[in-house]
Design goal:
Structural class of chain B: alpha+beta
Number of helices of chain A: 12
CATH topology of the domain at 71-242 and 265-279 in chain A: MetI-like fold
Helix content of chain B: 25-40%
Order of helices and strands of chain B: EEEHEEEHHHEHEHEEHHEEEHEEEEEEEH
CATH superfamily of the largest domain in chain B: P-loop containing nucleotide triphosphate hydrolases
Largest sheet of chain A: none
Number of strands of chain A: 0
Helix content of chain A: over 70%
Number of helices of chain B: 10
Strand order of the largest sheet of chain B: 6-7-8-3-9-10
CATH class of the largest domain in chain B: Alpha Beta
CATH architecture of the domain at 71-242 and 265-279 in chain A: Orthogonal Bundle
Oligomer: heterodimer
CATH class of the domain at 71-242 and 265-279 in chain A: Mainly Alpha
Shape of chain A: globular
Strand content of chain A: under 5%
CATH topology of the largest domain in chain B: Rossmann fold
Distance between the termini of chain B: 41 Å
Strand content of chain B: 25-35%
Radius of gyration of chain B: 25 Å
Structural class of chain A: mainly alpha
Chain lengths: 280, 378
């Protein structure tokens, strides 16, 4: 892409026009959800284009928070997601390091194997996973979900971390080892802090894998009290009618932690993504 | 400070490549030794083995009185300055220099004192709280050196530390490292592919080629008495001229006759006595560019004149570099500024070879045939 040129006014207008269109496409659905969540009753469709609907009310939020197990599901989702994130960061950062820096028997097959696991869609794995969970007596448990989510997120995260470590010159660890570090100290005092952008992506990816997941959770969890948010929200949609107001309010609240996380971590994320782009 | 002693140290990689073939030598306490050679000669591998970053396949390595073959880098009490500086990007200059001391749990006050002292010596006091990415190349290099000197190690290792700097800065840092060596009196081992750095900095030079030590000597002795044709050609710029030919004649009247030309150089008495045994054999004559003169009154006594075609003239101001040829042979001469004819295919020039400065090499082994200084024989 050409460098933006401030003297080229026409180009600027064109660029902003395109950006405005895409911004609108991105933001419009969210405004509709906000409108629906504020609308009294359960009217999904309306001819009104008002952002704030007639008779706007926060009643849906009140019902959601105090008359449904929403907070319980929020807790469940946070618990599972945070544990998956910690597991993902801990395992991917160390496994990626080993794969990047050490030559050992089976290294290439391991890297290839990790890639192959990514070729199978999650739905294909549902049945075998279900059987495994029954045998391990992990059905209807947080641990069952954590194991599956971690296993799903790890291959990508390990590759991602390995790719990032590959860009850090080995001379840094060598300098650290001559300065007096053990190999482990060289890793966590020098390399780990430098890998922050990749760690952020790993953390976000692990968190989102767990936070948004529906299909596996639907199979593993049966007890309503154990539900994660995607499962819980789906409960508002019944065969006969759907509580659109609650659904919309829930959808908005569910997205808040992820948006928050993105905002906090975006500073690291941008350099991480740029790097990913360069690495291909 | 300490001596470093290598005893038939070898490095063989798992794929069978032998990077270092049994190197044996000793670096004296407080000595500045330079490893020099073309890329791939094993000089960096040798240094990294001393640092503990590469395993030693066989042989023994002593630092001080200890055999350190199996010691981790941190236990060898060495400090290393890397080619790409290897500064920790997430730490400030101060923390970069303090890192090794912190790891070794030095008291805070002593760390502070040592870091500030090193910063003062190297002139980086103003940038102590900056991150490395905000520093210029020269400053980064100084910080990398500072990180080494705060540790006060037994041995300093430098791995081509100046090759990323521009020419002017390189000359400046070269003298700074030399000054540092005389200030600290520390044992230093310095790797470079630049023979000028080797000549100007080293107390002694280790010349390596294809993993084998070619010669270990002081810079000037190396220059005047290279052990073989490789050393002769590698040390010195422009490189030594080589002419293939043979020794002709009998008795004391021996001369070197170059292949396929009329070029003939009568040998002095001392060269003749040494080379008599090689009469009739194919040998290579070597002569440094500064030992060639334009024939005339400025040429030294006892020089042999020969006619060459003048191909290119490079006036440098303080000297003129002449590129000449004769049949299959080419040569470079560095002569004093003087009027020189325009070069061309039919421009001939008479050059005088200083016959007291000739080198002879066996064409098969490439070993020098006149190792002993001629002056000693007289």
């Amino acid at each position: 892409m050409a460098k933006p040129n401030s003297t080229n006014l026409g180009g600027m207008i064109w660029a902003y026009a395109v950006l405005a269109v895409f911004a609108f496409i991105s933001v419009y659905p969210i405004t509709r959800i906000i409108t629906v969540s504020l609308r009294p009753g359960d009217r999904l469709l309306s001819t009104s284009l008002d952002f704030i609907p007639d008779g706007a009310t926060l009643d849906n939020y009140r019902v959601l928070l105090f008359e449904t197990p929403f907070l319980r599901w929020l807790f469940n989702s946070l618990l599972v997601s945070v544990v998956v994130t910690i597991t993902g960061v801990a395992l991917a950062s160390t496994a990626g390091y080993a794969l990047s820096r050490y030559k050992f028997r089976g290294r290439n097959s391991m890297l290839g194997g990790l890639l192959i696991t990514q070729m199978f869609p999650a739905t294909m794995l549902l049945l075998p996973l279900y059987v495994v969970l029954i045998n391990l007596r992990l059905l209807d448990s947080y641990l069952g979900l954590v194991v599956i989510y971690s296993a799903t997120a790890l291959p990508f995260c390990v590759w991602q971390m390995k790719g990032y470590y590959d860009t850090i010159p080995p001379a840094l660890e060598e300098a650290a080892r001559i300065d007096g570090c053990t190999p482990w100290q060289a890793f966590y005092r020098v390399i780990f802090p430098l890998a922050a952008p990749a760690l952020v992506i790993t953390a976000l990816f692990s968190f989102m894998t767990a936070w948004n997941e529906y299909v596996v959770a639907n199979v593993v969890l049966q007890d309503t009290a154990m539900f994660t948010l995607p499962l819980g929200l789906k409960m508002f949609q019944n065969d006969m009618s759907t509580q659109w107001g609650l659904y919309a309010a829930g959808a908005l609240l569910v997205s808040i932690p992820v948006v928050g996380l993105f905002l906090i971590l975006s500073r690291y994320l941008i350099s991480g993504l740029t790097l990913g782009a360069v690495k291909g | 400070m300490a001596r470093v002693r290598l005893d038939t140290v070898r490095k063989v990689y798992p794929n069978g490549f032998e990077a270092v073939h049994g190197a044996s030598f000793e670096v004296q306490d407080g000595e500045f030794v330079v490893f020099v050679g073309p890329s791939g000669c094993g000089k960096s591998t040798l240094l990294r083995m001393i640092a503990g970053l590469e395993e030693i396949t066989s042989g023994t390595l002593h630092i001080g009185d200890r055999v350190v073959n199996d010691l981790a880098p941190k236990d060898r009490d060495v400090a290393m300055v890397f080619q790409n500086y290897a500064l920790y990007p997430h730490l400030t200059v101060y923390d970069n220099m303090a890192f090794g001391l912190k790891i070794r749990k030095f008291p805070k006050a002593e760390i502070d004192e040592r870091v500030r002292e090193a910063a003062r010596i190297l002139g980086v006091e103003q940038v102590l709280d900056r991150k490395p990415k905000l520093l210029s190349g020269g400053q980064r290099q100084r910080v990398a050196v500072g990180r080494a000197i705060v540790r006060k190690p037994e041995v300093f290792l430098f791995d081509e530390p100046l090759s990323n700097l521009d020419a002017k800065l390189r000359v400046q840092m070269r003298t700074e490292i030399s000054r540092l060596h005389s200030q600290l009196g520390a044992t230093m081992i310095y790797v470079t592919h630049d023979q000028v750095e080797a000549m100007t900095m080293g107390d002694r030079i280790v010349v390596l080629k294809d993993g084998e030590v070619q010669q270990i000597d002081t810079p000037l002795h190396l220059y005047d008495h290279p052990a073989n044709q490789f050393v002769a050609g590698f040390i010195g710029s422009p490189a030594m001229n080589f002419l293939s030919g043979r020794i002709d004649g009998s008795g004391d009247a021996l001369s070197f006759v170059a292949d396929e030309t009329a070029l003939s150089v009568p040998l002095g008495a001392s060269d003749a006595s040494l080379l008599r045994a090689h009469a009739g054999q194919a040998i290579t004559l070597g002569i440094r560019p500064e030992d060639l003169y334009v024939a005339g009154p400025t040429a030294p006594n006892g020089s042999a004149t020969s006619r060459w075609t003048l191909d290119v003239v490079e006036p440098m101001g303080n000297e003129i570099v002449l590129y000449v040829s004769s049949g299959p042979h080419t040569a470079v001469a560095r002569v004093a500024p003087q009027p020189i004819p325009e070069p061309g295919t039919d421009t001939d020039i008479d050059l005088a070879l200083d016959t007291s400065k000739l080198h002879f090499f066996d064409q098969e082994t490439e070993a020098a045939l006149t190792e002993t200084p001629t002056a000693d024989l007289a």
